[in-house]
Amino acid sequence: MFAGPDPDEYSKCVHCGFCLEVCPTYQQLSDENHSPRGRVFLIKQVAEGTLPLEAAVDPVFTCLDCRACETVCPSGVPVGHLIEMSRGQIHAARTQAQKQSRRERWMLRGLFSHPKRLRLAGNILRFYQVSGLRQLARSVGALKLLPSHLQEIEAGLPTVPLKPKERSLPLPVPHPASSSGRQPVRAALLTGCVMDVLFADVNDATARVIARNHMTVVVPEGQVCCGALHVHAGDREEAQALARRNIDAFLGAGSDFVVTNSAGCGAAMKEYGDLLRDDPAYREKAKTFSAMVRDISELLIEQGFDPPTGSLDQQVTYHDACHLCHAQGIREQPRQLIGAIAGVELVEMPDSDRCCGSAGVYNLTHPDMARQLLERKITDIPAEAEAVVMGNPGCMIQIRAGLAARERSTPVWHTVQLLDMAYQAEDQSSKR
Ligand code: SF4
Ligand code: SF4
Asked: Which residues form the 4Fe-4S ferredoxin-type domain (predicted)?
């Protein structure tokens, strides 16, 4: 029997309304039911039996789970956790919402949970992108047969790197000789589900940057999707199964840290302790695992990094991914890394921590809201920015799609890619 939201969590809300003005869905809809305060109240009413579960379905699933409300809440209401538990409750109760999300459930259980199927899908996508099929589809207008939000997402997808399977990272990536005298650190890299297929180049850059900073990179065999998308969709059972597999894979790898370059994965893995709190066999291991998780920017600042001497000479702006800034409190570390690169000037964008509308698979399940938020995000990108930098793959796809829709060619980089470029520039200048 699924326990549902915790009364101790929703009872913390004092209805002050400080959260309203930062909630993207409330900003767009001006409807109390689509505000953090309203959602918490609906969840409370359902739990107390004064409202049927179905009445909460739309507000709970229209939430982005962006956690901007948690950043400003003076009472410490864990709105994101309440939303996720409420979704789990809805999922377990087999309501209409579950019937409406069959496609989403197929993607989550049938695709993201299976690395081999994802690679196959990636290879098919790559064939489409590089064989001329994409160009043909565009020139004859075939893409117009797709719903408009899928057309936009298609435009935001990066070209799948060549044969992801064969490009897998060397095991382990040794750290170069260090003159610092620091103890060698072993960092186990989560290659991720989407990252491993669409952004294998970001994984490669991550491994190079870690190694460049005198740590050894290991890529544990047997690792799988982190389960973040499943938690967001309310499928906690599948998320727990994936978490157990990752815990076994990573704790068996004998590393000091579990490192990720995906904000959503990092936030989810830091909460494995909560996800598996009712599992006596994994409860303690999950806590140990969660304590080892670091975002790549967090790891580099915590362990110390060598400021690159290579110069990049460009103005960039930075988008705060919700699950980095709101869920993990990581705001300064990426800015410190960017600020350490010679020639790079950071031009802040307004409301850099407002959700871009990606939010896992939200841009597939709620395309209209996702598009409205993307429009606002793209408008906020300063005209002088020569690149947009961020730390989450979903945001990278979403913002690329938004830029493409406005025919802007501004590149989108992961923070670690920018740092890697600066290290490569340093290598090139030393060869001259
Ligand atoms: S800021 Fe926190 S306490 Fe205030 S209404 Fe929002 S959730 Fe409730
Ligand atoms: S998580 Fe985001 S969308 Fe959901 S209630 Fe909080 S601020 Fe609003």
From this structure: 3-34, 53-83
Tell whether the model's pLDDT for residue 289 goes beyond 90.
yes
Q: What token pair was written down for 388?
A: 């947009």
Model pLDDT, residue 164: 47
> Domains in the chain, ordered, with CATH?
8-99 (1.10.1060.10), 305-427 (3.40.50)
Which ligand 2 atom sits closest to the C-alpha of 25?
Answer: 3
Ligand number nearest CA of 61 is 2
Site to probe by mutation for ligand 1, drawn from 9, 11, 12, 13 as the one with most ligand atoms within 8 Å of Cβ, is 13
Q: Pick the residue with more confidence: 242 or 173?
A: 242
Residue-wise pLDDT tens digits, 117-145: 777 777 778 778 877 777 777 777 777 77
Q: Helices H, strands E: what count in the chain?
A: 25, 8
Pocket of ligand 1, beta carbon within 6 A: 13-19, 36-37, 40, 69, 73, 75, 77, 79
Query: CA-to-CA distance for 420 and 173, rounded, in angstroms?
Result: 15
Beta strands across the sheet bearing 185-189? 215-218, 185-189, 257-260, 293-295
Give Rg (Cα) of the chain.
21
Which ligand lies nearest to the CA atom of residue 68 in the structure?
2
Q: What is the DSSP string of 35-96?
A: SHHHHHHHHHHHHTTSS-THHHHHHHHH-----HHHHH-TT---HHHHHHHHHHHHHHTT-H
Amino acid code (one letter) for 20: L
